[in-house]
Design brief:
12 helices, disordered C terminus, five-stranded parallel sheet, alpha/beta, single chain
Amino acid sequence: MTSDTTGLPVLVIGAGPIGLAAAAHLLERGLEPLVLEAGPSAATAVRGWSHVRLFSPWAEVVDPAAEKLLAPTGWTRPDATAYPTGGDWAAHYLQPLADALGARVRYDARVTGVARAGRDRIVDADREQQPFTVHVEHADGTEERLLARAVVDASGTWSTPGPLGADGLPALGERAAADRVTYRVPDLRDPAVRARHAGKRTAVVGTGASAFTALAALADLAEQAPGTHAVWVLRRGLTGSTYGGGTADQLPARGALGLAAEQAVDDGHATALTGFRTAAVERAADGKLVLVAEDGTRTEELDEVVVLTGLRPDLSFLTELRLALDDRLQAPVALAPLIDPNQHSCGTVYPHGANELSHPEQDAYLVGMKSYGRAPTFLALTGYEQARSVAAALAGDHEAAARVELTLPETGVCGGAGLYDAPAEEQGDGGCCGAPAAPQPITLGTPAAGGSCSPGGC
């Protein structure tokens, strides 16, 4: 029997930047969205890194359809050239956008499962004619079953940070050391957090923008609190591209962030520990931690460990959907080759939309950071283009869905991921990404400027 999905909403999971943009684009297309947010307010994940400054200016983190929706409310875009923090983004754009969507956004509603009505993932019969069933758990413990004509998962990856272990698993002893291990960029404005790091030795594990942010912030703290030092733990060697594109980056704040991390090392506020692949965490007699590498190398005693090894998607509530995901990145198979950090050298991603994001399960899409799986190069601009294209596809405008309406800035970084086990001197910087006009310098400070591609999708 065929079920009629007429009148059912398009269910959007997550009231973050891309989920809210998707809702705005769906409304623009005459489709009714219903946004479910696990947290108590819009942009719960973004608020989790509210102290971090984005490396994209306001001009690049406001979605056009969202701005149209906000205009009648009296909202005005902040200075297009300014760089917001995550807190600014949430307070001055994302929450107002959610407020404009009104009852279409529901909070404290965690999605625990998505399927087809009456069909587990095995059953073929009339599958595409059935609505989606979405199981929701509310903050008070009650459960609800909703029906939807389509599902757009924009839940991101913030809730599932990568572990300390170099093999992708938690290092031995990592869970037991939870009192001294964190997976977020420390907010040194918080007196309690500041006290944990001031005058202390902190390991920063990771090589992305989040690690750069932490290194720069700890270097600032070292200027004020003698004895503060960062041990930067890298699984590979230092190369010319380790710190990003510098002045060749078309996002000036992103380039400046890498330069600030490099300065932290040059000034002696951070020591780079290269070729270190963590296998275990041991507790010293005084309660401090020691990291042990796969080859038996040991760090000196550490007061704190900040693990910034990337994020990964939570796919646990999508197991009854037929998703085609790359076996490495856990991204849609058509998108994965475009964003694979093992292959790509210049940081730019070919603009993509519904075609690359589609799955065998018709009308089910992963968008935003969730669509990138474990790849670290996501930008808000990319997600907004995804939202526009997916909304067009769901509205039946396949020509608009296939149209490219985005040009992404280059990082100025070449050479891909490098040879995994080669010494630093053998990890070449690769060819050339071209030479964009030199960006104007910006001032780095606290809150840490530059943000992170991974947490904020900036």
